[in-house]
């Protein structure tokens, strides 16, 4: 095994290694997407159209920076994920609240869009692995899939907790159990790529349910912490974890240059 080649491949990969920290930040990001979108839409007072325009503009800017970098930079990557989470939530909310599209329809549509993205991605690249995101085309497929997973996860989460009346508590329990099942399947030898994307989709409704549970008022089944405080706490945790990963990455690169 060529360790130098493996090390070089890892350094060129534009997305982070899938670790426990990755999943923790992912769930925190999805929660911020839910509470952040609610805060911007309800409390800031800019109006839905202007708020959506601002967040979409920020996402385009962050994604442009991410695509133009030559390596994985933790703060750029996770800033893009947080913004994708917010925009994905806003897309679903716009369809549900603004256009009165049924959550059954939007969930099915986003599921079909994600399946189509994966189909084209695989047809072109012959892989859906996240361990070799080293070209602009492959990374473009990756981010298209990420946006679809956030929109699908938001719609599916709202469908479960609101349309089906399961509530936020049951949403956290159900989606948490589904993620645990996917993890167990992976441990038992199931396809790693399939397990990753299933878990990635499921963390979105888990994070949304957790965000609603913490931020919504008690009369609606939440804990009443409010969207702004929930968002601040989770953004602070994300910042700390990303700073730690950035430091760890710099130390690893410094160590590798000594050999």
Automatic annotation (TrEMBL):
What organism is recorded for this protein? Afipia carboxydohydrogena (Pseudomonas carboxydohydrogena)
Membrane-spanning intervals of the chain: 40-63, 75-91, 103-124, 140-160, 172-202, 223-247
- What Pfam families is this protein classified in? DUF347
**Could you tell me which InterPro entries the record lists for this protein?**
DUF347
Q: Which UniProt keywords apply?
A: Membrane, Transmembrane, Transmembrane helix
Could you identify this protein by its name?
Membrane-anchored protein
Q: Does the keyword Zinc apply?
A: no
């Amino acid at each position: 095994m060529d360790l130098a080649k493996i090390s070089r491949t890892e350094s060129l990969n534009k997305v982070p290694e899938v670790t426990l920290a990755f999943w923790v930040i992912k769930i925190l990001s999805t929660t911020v997407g839910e509470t952040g979108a609610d805060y911007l839409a309800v409390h800031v007072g800019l109006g839905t159209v202007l708020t959506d325009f601002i967040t979409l503009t920020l996402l385009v800017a962050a994604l442009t920076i991410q695509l133009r970098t030559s390596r994985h930079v933790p703060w750029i990557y996770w800033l893009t994920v947080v913004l994708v989470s917010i925009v994905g939530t806003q897309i679903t909310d716009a369809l549900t609240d603004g256009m009165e599209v049924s959550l059954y329809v939007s969930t099915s549509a986003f599921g079909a869009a994600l399946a189509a993205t994966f189909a084209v991605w695989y047809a072109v690249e012959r892989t859906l692995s996240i361990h070799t995101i080293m070209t602009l085309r492959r990374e473009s497929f990756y981010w298209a899939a990420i946006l679809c997973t956030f929109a699908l996860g938001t719609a599916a989460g709202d469908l479960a907790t609101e349309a089906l009346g399961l509530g936020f508590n049951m949403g956290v329990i159900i989606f948490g159990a589904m993620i645990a099942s996917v993890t167990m399947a992976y441990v038992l030898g199931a396809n790693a790529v399939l397990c990753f994307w299933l878990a990635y989709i499921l963390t979105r409704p888990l994070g949304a349910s957790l965000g609603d549970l913490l931020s919504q008022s008690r009369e609606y089944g939440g804990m009443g912490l409010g969207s702004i405080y929930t968002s601040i706490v989770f953004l602070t945790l994300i910042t700390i974890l990303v700073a730690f990963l950035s430091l760890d990455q710099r130390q690893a690169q410094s160590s590798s240059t000594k050999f």
